[in-house]
Amino acid sequence: MSPSETILVFGATGQTGRHFIQHPLRDGHRVRVLARTPAKLGDARARVEAVEGSITDDLDLDSLLEGVDAVVCLLGDARAQQDRKVNTEFVQRLVPAMRRQGATRLLYQAGALSAPPDRALPVGLRAVRSTIARSYLGQHRDNEAVMRYLTDEADDLAWVVHRAGIGSDGPSKGALERSSRSPSIATFGDCAAYGYGLLSDPAAVHTCDVSSYARGGSAA
Ligand SMILES: NC(=O)c1ccc[n+]([C@@H]2O[C@H](COP(=O)([O-])OP(=O)(O)OC[C@H]3O[C@@H](n4cnc5c(N)ncnc54)[C@H](OP(=O)(O)O)[C@@H]3O)[C@@H](O)[C@H]2O)c1
Question: Among 3, 33, 58, 72, which is disulfide-ready with 12 (CB 3.0 to 4.6 Å)?
């Protein structure tokens, strides 16, 4: 990334988000976040520009995006997503606002159990999705609709989707790499670091890949 950019983060209070924002802050970038409960940002609250609100509100997205170089969505609300494609509805409003404000880069984190638009999930992942992870079905359907929308209607933006495989909030297990293989079961911190790197990786643009630990890391 260029020095001193402005990054707008949705989901900064979440399990991936709270790790993610540390990276641009460490590199001297400005971080703006939309949070339903800014107090959940803890110590980071003093270092970011926090706007209180929900993606389901009638937001002034143009103001939120003013001066923004890159947008990051680390959003999830499995209960709300059971009944409604909350994230898709939001991304469909976000993308036109990004165009109006000249923000060209978008990182969206989905899950490894969400199928990419161009292929079915491997049998093993399909089995996990329909059994032990079935309470997240709505979230996966929502994330899949986001991927389809970006693929079909947003090829003018430099978007990238990370279909993360996350298992714990423990210590780092190594560096993740983009992969079309089976996903590693990664930590939230490693996914956050990987996602931050994706923002400045031109080879990742318009991909919806999973990630695996590099050789030497603890791949699942
Ligand atoms: N958790 C996993 O094991 C896992 C595994 C693989 C992939 N993923 C994917 O990674 C993405 C993020 O997951 P995560 O586990 O890091 O997130 P998370 O811990 O569930 O946090 C979700 C974030 O989204 C925010 N959010 C939800 N609804 C919102 C709304 N209406 N308005 C504003 N903010 C809202 C939450 O804010 P509040 O703090 O206000 O709730 C929180 O900051 C999801 O797409 C998920 O499918 C997760």
Answer: 33
From CA 77, how far away is CA 82, in angstroms rounded?
A: 9
Ordered domains of the chain (ranges, CATH): 6-213 (3.40.50.720)
**Cα 201 to ligand 1 centre (Å):** 23
**36, 93, 106: which to mutate for ligand 1, most atoms within 8 A of CB?**
36
Does the pTM exceed 0.85? yes
| Distance (Å, whole) CA 38 – CA 31 | 13
Helix (H, G, I), strand (E, B) or coil at 29: coil
pLDDT in tens, 76-131: 999 999 999 999 999 999 999 999 999 999 999 999 999 999 999 999 999 999 99
Residue nearest to atom 28 of ligand 1 (CA): 77
CA of 175 relative to ligand 1 center, distance in Å? 22
Which atom of ligand 1 is least distant from the CA of 17? 16
